[in-house]
């Protein structure tokens, strides 16, 4: 049996080869040959030279790949389609086995030289070698393009920003007398078509409005079609990662105003908040887009918050310094700072301070002696009395200073409230603008 197999296979393949004459394929070959034999791709395919070739354009935005505010570049993935008529590529389909449509190599036929004006970089777009031609000579060419286009990006309202970038198509050489442009679909259809758009990106496609214009240049009149791609950012991720943490940190710092201004713990508290805020900003510095042309409002807000933090910390340092100065000349005077909550490390610190011979008064590290006897209280009161008597003049000056600082404290507290309020109002109005579109 085994040696028979090759013979059977040869016989079957012979039957298949001779039994199917492949008329479609040969007709296709015949047609392609006939179409391209006398074709000159250098010549614009019109019988009457004064007639313009009408190129119909269509555009689908597929995805927003990158919005680079620093370099003012937008990278989009679009599906581009152009349709034109070639008067030399038509045939009578009943003479060619009812073939209505064939594909031809793009390199073999005339094609319009349409470019995107804003294009600054050619990305990897597949070079599709074929176009479809139907029997009346209509050529359809469609290709996906990754366009890196120059666009004036407005990041002032980040993360509630809306961008309006245009893609302008025109023939690089041919004037409107030779190559004219038109829309393939109605402009309303183009405007609201979001079917091809990938929804789960950072950006949402709002609309693609389009205009047809004739541009007058010194070299002639050029037809151009402009698509305005309007996109808006999904702000939620930035609200969660940027806005809310920064507001929380400011609220925490606002809480420090409930500590008495002369309390040393306040400095520690404020320093911690400042360090926290700095770490937060360093971490998030890549999240906020920046450009030389404009700064996002939220960046300005962060800086103002930082300035407030630094200002109030310096004020606290100044205040404590003033209070400490007071005791340099005289005895210690207890200033009450959080009578209920004593510093946990105070008992450890005081002996050390004494050992080091530091004359820092207990004012600076709130003095709260648990085993305070009447005698000690009396001696303290006495020392205050002494102090007031000996340095009355100086103390009055100091008190004025202190009053000023307290007033400043109140002022700072109010500016915190004002800044936070302004921030909230601004965000709300930006959000309202954003959602109104
Ligand atoms: C196409 O060819 C068929 C048969 O040869 C003929 O009857 C018909 O008129 C032709 N049509 C055109 C549009 O030339
Ligand atoms: C070729 O395509 C064009 C545009 O799609 C259409 O108007 C025309 O009827 C088609 N011709 C044939 C023979 O199908
Ligand atoms: C986008 O910009 C174009 C001109 O640059 C303008 O005509 C169009 O109205 C703008 N669209 C929106 C939604 O702002
Ligand atoms: C995106 O959402 C729109 C409606 O919101 C829908 O019509 C469209 O099919 C979606 N696109 C994709 C790719 O899922």
TrEMBL record:
The keyword Metal-binding does not apply. It catalyses: Na(+)(in) = Na(+)(out); Ca(2+)(in) = Ca(2+)(out); K(+)(in) = K(+)(out). Residues 1-17 form the signal peptide. Coiled coil: none annotated. The chain crosses the membrane at residues 236-255, 296-313, 411-434. One of its GO terms (molecular function) is serotonin-gated monoatomic cation channel activity. InterPro entries: 5HT3_rcpt, 5HT3_rcpt_B, LGIC_TM_5-HT3, Neur_chan_lig-bd, Neur_chan_lig-bd_sf, Neur_channel, Neuro-gated_channel_TM_sf, Neuro_actylchol_rec. Its main location: membrane. Residues 30-235 form the Neurotransmitter-gated ion-channel ligand-binding domain. It comes from the Eukaryota. GO terms for cellular component: postsynaptic membrane; serotonin-activated cation-selective channel complex. GO terms for biological process: serotonin-gated cation-selective signaling pathway. It is found in: Postsynaptic cell membrane. It is a multi-pass membrane protein. Residues 242-319 form the Neurotransmitter-gated ion-channel transmembrane domain. It holds the Pfam family Neur_chan_LBD. Gene3D superfamilies: Neurotransmitter-gated ion-channel ligand-binding domain, Neurotransmitter-gated ion-channel transmembrane domain. Belongs to the ligand-gated ion channel (TC 1.A.9) family. 5-hydroxytryptamine receptor (TC 1.A.9.2) subfamily. HTR3B sub-subfamily. This is 5-hydroxytryptamine receptor 3B.
């Amino acid at each position: 049996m085994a040696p028979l197999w090759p013979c059977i296979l040869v016989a079957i393949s012979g039957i298949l080869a001779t039994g199917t004459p492949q008329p479609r394929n040969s007709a296709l070959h015949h047609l392609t040959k006939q179409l391209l034999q006398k074709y000159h791709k250098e010549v614009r395919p019109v019988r009457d030279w004064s007639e313009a070739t009408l190129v119909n354009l269509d555009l689908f935005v597929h995805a927003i790949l990158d919005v680079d505010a620093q370099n003012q570049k937008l990278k989009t993935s679009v599906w581009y389609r152009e349709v034109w008529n070639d008067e030399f590529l038509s045939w009578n389909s009943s003479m060619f086995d009812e073939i209505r449509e064939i594909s031809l190599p793009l390199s073999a036929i005339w094609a319009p030289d349409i470019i995107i004006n804003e294009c600054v970089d050619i990305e990897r777009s597949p070079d599709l070698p074929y176009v479809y031609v139907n029997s009346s000579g209509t050529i359809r060419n469609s290709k996906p393009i990754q366009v890196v286009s120059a666009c004036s990006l407005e990041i002032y309202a980040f993360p509630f920003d809306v961008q309006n970038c245009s893609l302008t198509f025109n023939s690089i050489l041919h004037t409107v007398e030779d190559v004219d442009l038109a829309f393939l679909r109605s402009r309303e259809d183009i405007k609201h078509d979001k079917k091809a758009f990938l929804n789960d990106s950072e950006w949402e496609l709002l609309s693609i409005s389009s205009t047809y214009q004739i541009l007058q240049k010194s070299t002639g009149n050029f037809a151009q079609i402009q698509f305005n791609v309007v996109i808006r950012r999904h702000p939620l991720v930035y609200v969660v990662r940027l806005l809310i943490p920064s507001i929380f940190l400011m609220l925490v710092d606002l809480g420090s105003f409930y500590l008495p201004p002369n309390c040393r713990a306040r400095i520690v508290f404020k320093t911690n908040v400042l360090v926290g805020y700095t770490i937060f900003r360093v971490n998030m510095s890549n999240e906020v887009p920046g450009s030389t042309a404009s700064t996002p409002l939220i960046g300005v807000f962060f800086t103002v918050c930082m300035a407030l933090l630094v200002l109030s910390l310096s004020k606290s340092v100044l205040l404590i310094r003033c209070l400490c100065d007071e005791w340099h000349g005289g005895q210690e005077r207890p200033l009450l700072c959080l009578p209920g909550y004593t510093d946990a490390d105070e008992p450890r610190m005081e002996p050390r301070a004494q050992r080091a011979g530091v004359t820092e008064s207990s004012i600076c590290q709130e003095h709260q002696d648990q085993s305070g006897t009447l005698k000690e209280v009396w001696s303290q009161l006495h020392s205050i009395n002494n102090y007031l008597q000996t340095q009355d003049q100086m103390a009055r000056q100091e008190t004025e200073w202190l009053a000023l600082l307290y007033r400043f404290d109140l002022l700072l507290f109010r500016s915190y409230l004002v800044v936070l309020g302004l921030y909230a109002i601004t965000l709300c109005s930006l959000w309202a603008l954003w959602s109104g579109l």
